[in-house]
Every structure is written in C-alpha cells, then in structure tokens.
Specification:
Blueprint (H helix, E strand, L loop, with lengths): L2 H15 L4 H13 L14 H17 L5 H25 L20 H34 L4 H21 L1 H42 L1 H4 L1
Helix pairs in contact: 1-2, 1-4, 1-5, 1-6, 1-7, 2-3, 2-6, 4-5, 5-7, 6-7
C-alpha cells in the first residue's frame, strides 16, 4: 500500500470515528469484505462475516441511542475515549499495510514498511488525535445545542453527525484524496466549536465565582 494513500485513508477513517465510533468501523468492514479497502496484516478480520454482523448491531445501537434525550450526553462521555481507540485502530489498519515503492515490505517479519511499535505510535498520534479533536468538537456543539434549545435540536445535530461520519468514511474508502479535504474542513470546524465553548466557559465562570463570593459576604442579600 502506498504510504500517502495509507496515511490519508487512515487519518480520514479515524476522523470519522470522532462523529460516531462504529459507523467508520462498519464502513471499513464492508470495504474490506468487498475488496474495496486494503488493510495491513492482522486486520483482515475486519472483512469477516462475524465482524460485519457485530459492527452492524453496534452501529445501529449507537445511532439509535443518540435520538434518546439525555442518553446522547451519556454516550458522548463514553464515546470520547472510545473514539480515540477506534481512530487509532482505523489508522493502524492502514499504516500497517504500508510497503516499499516496489511493493515489498522492508520488514518481512511484520509484512510492512513500518515496525509494529512505531506504527501504533503513529496511529495513536495521527488517528487517535484526529478522532479526539472531532469528538471534542461535536461534544461542544451538542452542549451549545442543549443550552440554546433545551435539547430540542439535539436530534438534528445527531442526524448531521451520523451523516458526517458515514460520508467521510465512505469517501475515505473510495476517494481518499477528496476525504482529506473534507477531513481538514471538519477538524477546523471542530477546533472552532471547541474553542468557542472554552471561551464561553471562561466568561461565565468568573461571573459565577463573583456571584458566589457576594452571596457568602452578604447572606441576607440572597434571602
């Protein structure tokens, strides 16, 4: 697998895990099963029948859960570390398949140009990092949606996230170069959403602290 294509596909699939943990895994599983996606040694299990079945059930459960009020917030709490793990896995499935320009592995024992240890480190930094950035951005967006609409708009946000994860994962499998552009846009938006949330927290917390201090110093004022 060419190093550029492997890195791009791995990072883009990982970033899609930031929207939903299991959707990109299911897309990758289908891609491997149909022969549309190449993976490194040790990851052919993604295309197995049992992997397709399990990931299909997990995806349906995850997607449905985001339409249940307040459950979506619980899922966000669980999904943050899970997205980083899934992103690392998706990146490694591609990075572990990198070979030399002539198609031969420089490390015959691993079947790859990259050593397993270095591959996992790269995957954690690039794949896990991309997934985590997108996940934190979506959490910030959901918090803003809850604060401004009381959670009424959360199903719409969830639908957009489902679509974003599916589209990004499919494009990563079919046209990785285009997926790279989409991933760059998604990461930029996620960073913006996260920074906006942090900025709002920074404005609110001092005011809250001042109010508590005033109440403690003037107990009769609260009454």
């Amino acid at each position: 697998m060419h190093i550029a294509i492997a890195l791009i596909a791995g990072i883009c699939l990982a970033a899609a895990c930031g929207f939903r943990v299991f959707v990109p895994l299911l897309v990758a599983s289908i891609g491997v099963h149909l022969g549309w996606l190449n993976v490194g040694p040790g990851f052919n299990w993604l295309g197995s029948d049992w992997a397709l079945a399990l990931l299909g059930v997990a995806t349906a459960t995850e997607v449905a859960g985001y339409y249940i009020p307040w459950v979506d917030h619980a899922l966000d709490t669980i999904s943050t570390p899970a997205a980083a793990v899934a992103g690392t896995l998706m990146a490694m499935s591609q990075i572990s398949g990198i070979t030399a320009p002539d198609g031969s592995p420089l490390l015959p024992e691993s079947g790859s140009l990259i050593s397993p240890a270095f591959g996992w480190i790269m995957s954690a930094v690039l794949g896990g990092g991309a997934a985590l950035i997108v996940q934190l951005g979506t959490v910030a967006l959901r918090v803003a949606s809850t604060a401004t609409t009381g959670g009424l708009a959360n199903p719409i946000v969830s639908s957009v996230e489902h679509a974003g994860s599916l589209i990004l994962a499919v494009v990563a499998v079919v046209v990785p170069v285009v997926a790279l552009i989409l991933t760059a846009i998604v990461i930029a938006l996620a960073i913006r959403w996260y920074l906006n949330r942090r900025e709002k927290q920074a404005r609110v917390e001092p005011a809250y602290a001042r109010a508590r201090t005033f109440t403690r110093m003037n107990p009769h004022a609260a009454a």
